[in-house]
Description:
The chain is an alpha/beta fold. The protein has 3 domains: 2-122 and 145-255, 3-Layer(aba) Sandwich (Aldehyde Dehydrogenase, Chain A, domain 1); 261-463, Aldehyde Dehydrogenase, Chain A, domain 2 (3-Layer(aba) Sandwich); 521-670, Thiol Ester Dehydrase, Chain A (Roll).
Amino acid sequence: MxxxxxxxxxxxxxxxxxxxxxxxxTGEEVARVSSHGVDFAATLDYGRRTGGPALRALTxxxxxxxxxxxxxxxxxxxxxxxxLSARTGATxxxxxxxxxxxxxxxxxxxxxxxxxLPDERCYVEGPPERLGKTGLFxxxxxxxxxxxxAVQVNAFxxxxxxxxxxxxxxxxxxxxxxxxxxxxxxxxxxxxVELIVDxxxxxxxxxxxxxxxxxxxxxxxxxxxxxxxxxxAATARRLRAHPVVVGRAVRFNAEADSLNCSVLxxxxxxxxxxxxxxxxxxxxxxxxxxxxxxxxxxxxxxxAGQVDAVIEAVGARLAKVVVxxxxxxxxxxxxxxxxxxxxxxxxxxxxxxxxxxLVWGDPDHVEVSGADDERGAFISPVLLAGDADRPEPHxxxxxxxxxxxxxxxxxxxxxxxxxxxxxxxxxxxxxxDADFAREVVLGLAPWHGRILVLxxxxxxxxxxxxxxxxxxxxxxxxxxxxGEELGGLRSVFHHMQRTAVxxxxxxxxxxxxxxxxxxxxDTAGGHPFRKSLADLRVGDTVVAGPRAVTLADxxxxxxxxxxxxYAHMDEAAAAANPFFEGRVAHGYLxxxxxxxxxxxxxxxxxxxxxxxxxxxxxxPVYPGDELKVTLTCKQISPRDGAYGEVRWDTEVTKxxxxxxxxxxxxTMVAKQWPLAEGSTS
Length: 681
Ligand code: NAP
């Protein structure tokens, strides 16, 4: 029987033997797993010395391109992964959830990084903070990649999505990864890593794989390494308290189990679309991946008067769920990942039944289609009706197709009951009543990482209670691990060190590559609009004006745009306004006049103005005022292709030096001028 190989120190290696893991459907041995022979100290060192420097040499956009290419490559091989995934007991739908979900995370991160991160190696966060009275000293946050390895210890239920959701942000941050899959389904992860390694898309050392137990892995973590864990709350507690993790303050993120809840609104009585949505969602959450989802609904909170109706409707749907061999097309729910898992789920159901009664399904018997129910880890969906005052429904996670219906009487009560789970990954509220939704969501929020509100309007596009979208936070407080994985760029930044850098505006400009207010401006080099990116420098400035603003200008603008707001048109009414002494120029007139002052009109390297950021009108402009504008190149962000983005600090001042308006003008500027042949198409 094949012994799974690990990919460490730039090569594949396999132990002589290992623990057997079995096909969840047939019970046949699939592979043997052991990390025997893996030198974890050398593996981490290899990642730090090889993968780290190679990734840090790339810009965010270059790393995003790698992530995209890995996602595209894996998409080509989905069928191979589905086939292996089926051996974990997954239906094709379940496999797609895992495999396509994981690929989707890669592609989502790649595109987000290209859109929202600069084509640079580090990230400058937020605006400068002025620290001195006269602007001679300021501070700014800079994020640089950690110099260690992002170690991921994953759960068995998502062997593809689990590692990829951690790999994507680590790669984009410039940090190499070591993947340690759960032994039970490591053969799927190993096949996925093999595809990545064989593709040659990533630099050496960027991804390593250690199949089998974690051995002494944690003993070799350093202050620059990170540990990302997904699994049970019990293991999370153990890893969090590891002496090296504690002693070296290793960055630790845990995504653990939780007793997620779904609340049926008091308005959602039988016959309403929301009642049906609630029932359908609950059955989906119970049966997808045979309920082996950390986000699945374990506690179904229902108004006390609706308990029987919900049980009846859920039962009717569960009765149609065919359990069996995922290869059989009629099968809706496959097997649990292993026979041991089934025993654990049965133990969980027993504990839950102590606090209520079984109302649908039998954990010890199930009719199985197309497979041997003795050898495969099949189990029936199980619905319980519980006593909400007992501790078990709020404490026991039966990690399978198991949910408990719990009654509530009032909004305050359901909020209090939900909190007894002591921290959850995901919750949902199903209602058409916006006031109810608001009260419950805000009440639940401190105990939840994500809350989905479902009603008839959003339902057609709802992403579902159990699916964490990569752009939104995944994680939860307390029992859920206290971590925050995914969440768009937040999780990229988890792999970087945020450093507050303080200094003079000139120093901050040099260090961050962004012009900082108070730093020198260069007005001697000609109009910056005549410079392509090859010549343009941060700090290049044009000062233009003055230009007097007349009453005729204001009236002309009002007439032309039909913006005849009284503050521009009626002297007495304007003067009665607490902000003005009389008629004032339109803010947009000021911005337009400023553009008329600073632009260089002839065709040139500035190709387009694509927006304005942070526009503020700070002092009113009256007829007779004279405007000057100072436009300074603040940030240059080259893109692939023939042009890049240039951000211009723009300050419009009046004759007395007061600032009328301040904003950033955003332009596209050619890398070379004239444009190279073919680059205009
Ligand atoms: P688990 O038993 O806690 O194992 C998770 C991982 O930790 C496995 O890779 C396991 O390796 C490893 N591990 C166990 N003991 C360890 C130790 N002392 N040192 C280092 N590593 C250790 O959880 P599981 O049974 O695989 O997964 C099911 C649980 O995960 C459920 O409770 C579920 O709710 C939770 N989960 C949470 C999320 C989330 O995003 N929050 C997602 C999926 C699952 P071996 O397999 O080699 O023992």
